[in-house]
Amino acid sequence: MAFVMLAEVLIFVPSVARFRADYLLLRLEKAQIASLALLATDDAKVSASLETELLKNAEVFNVVLRRDEVRQLALSSPIPQPISATYDLRQAGPWELIRDAAQVLVDRENRVIRVIGNPVQDAGLLIEITMETGPLRKAMAEYGLRILFLSALISAVTAFLLFLAVQRLLVAPIRRVVRHMSAYAEAPEDARRVITPSAGVVELRVAEEALAQMQTQLTGALRQKERLAQLGGAVAKISHDLRNILTTAQLFADRLEISADPAVARAAPKLVGSISRAVSLCESTLAFGKAEEPPPQLKRLPLRVLAEEVVEGEGLGGEGLGAEPGLVSCVIDVPAGLVIRADGEQLHRVLGNLLRNARQAIEAVGQPGTIEIAGGEDESEWWIRVGDTGPGLPPKAREHLFSAFQGGARKGGTGLGLAIASELVRGHGGRLELARSDAEGTEFMIHLPKRVLGGESDQA
């Protein structure tokens, strides 16, 4: 209604100005007709009573005609007050008409004005009248009220029709989308609750199509997640039973190493290694199948001591358990006084996984290589770098490096080690990232923040 009223105001102002101009032209026309009655007599004279009646019907005081270059006072009567203004309608433009109309409406005094115009039907050079502004202002006010009433009525009808249109085209489809979203949120696995786009408005139609696509993808993801959860439960049970079977087999395989048969003695280490890898796979699968890792118990601990324990536990500190002597060497470049804040057990697992992957990468090419563990700190975090001089990661492994069962870097690997390591580092509020992997080797970076909950910075 406000916008329609604004449009009506823009129409109202020139309309009132046009009404004033028409009103004055009508008075000029009536005055001309009255003067023609005078000219129709033989002596160009009428009685005083007839002259008064003609001026009253024309609603003017005086009428002046100019014909054949002669200015003639056709009709006249006493003027109650001096003339206050003169308006020439022959040369008035739109802005002058609007200005003069506004002055009439604002001025409440009844004044006498002179109006000049062209006679109708070219019955002379000009016609001039004197009249009061009171009747003019009253007629303009009545016309303005009629225009305002009509504008208000049009505005109300327009607003009502616009309200119905908005309700039908916008509000109702939006409410439908909201109902679909609420219903879908109650059971997102139910594909029947995915919205079917039906809006007529293009923008809402696009929004519904995007919502339908998102709901379809989410429903599929939830179904896949449910199937994977069921599959994970089944795999965990199988891994548990298989681990027990392989453990028993490992005990018997250990006895084969002391066999006097040379062929058995040669095959026994390979058999034991295969069974050990199978047991490790089962244990990793069971560990990853847990709902979540326990929250880290953060304590201050010396990083170099932890690194030495990990290296020794992986058989790289002595004669290389499980590796050919001298094939893989390890260098620890961690300041002796560097103390970090972390869960020692979980960080031990992270470093162990990284060292194990690095050692296997070097052993795979059969060339001597080096693993380096470095550490340091800055104002906001501690960092740990684990690098090797192996062949680097293949492109496929880099795409899903930290995804379980997808980021395996070696043949037969599961990718669980890096997935678990990344999850453990995230539990500390940090991140595990691949810093470099090329023909010269691979390098991982562990970032552990110093800022703890509450906004305080822990400076060890």
- CA-to-CA gap between the ends? 68 Å
The secondary structure category is alpha+beta
Major beta sheet summary:
5 strands, mixed
Q: How many beta strands in the DSSP annotation?
A: 12
Unreliable sequence segments = 318-324
How many domain modules? 3
Number of helices: 10
Q: Kindly report the oligomeric state of this protein.
A: single chain
Tell me, briefly, the overall form. Answer: rod-shaped
Helix share bin: 40-55%
What would CATH call the homologous superfamily of the largest domain?
Histidine kinase-like ATPase, C-terminal domain
| Order of secondary-structure elements | HHEEEHEEHHHEHEEHEEHHEE
CATH structural fold name of the largest domain: Heat Shock Protein 90
If you compute it from the alpha carbons, what radius of gyration comes out, rounded to the nearest whole angstrom? 50 Å
Question: What is the annotated CATH architecture of the largest domain?
Answer: 2-Layer Sandwich
Which range does the strand content fall in?
15-25%
CATH level 1 name of the largest domain: Alpha Beta
Report what the structure shows.
This protein has 10 helices and 12 strands. It is α+β, with helices and mostly antiparallel strands and 460 residues long. The chain has 3 domains: 151 residues, no CATH class; 86 residues; 154 residues, Heat Shock Protein 90 (2-Layer Sandwich). A hairpin with a 3-residue loop joins β9 and β10. About 2% of the residues have low confidence.
Identify the notable features of this structure and list them briefly.
about 450 residues, alpha+beta, Heat Shock Protein 90, five-stranded mixed β-sheet, 10 helices, about 55% helix, rod-shaped, kinase, transferase, HisK_dim/P_sf, HATPase_dom, phosphorelay sensor kinase activity
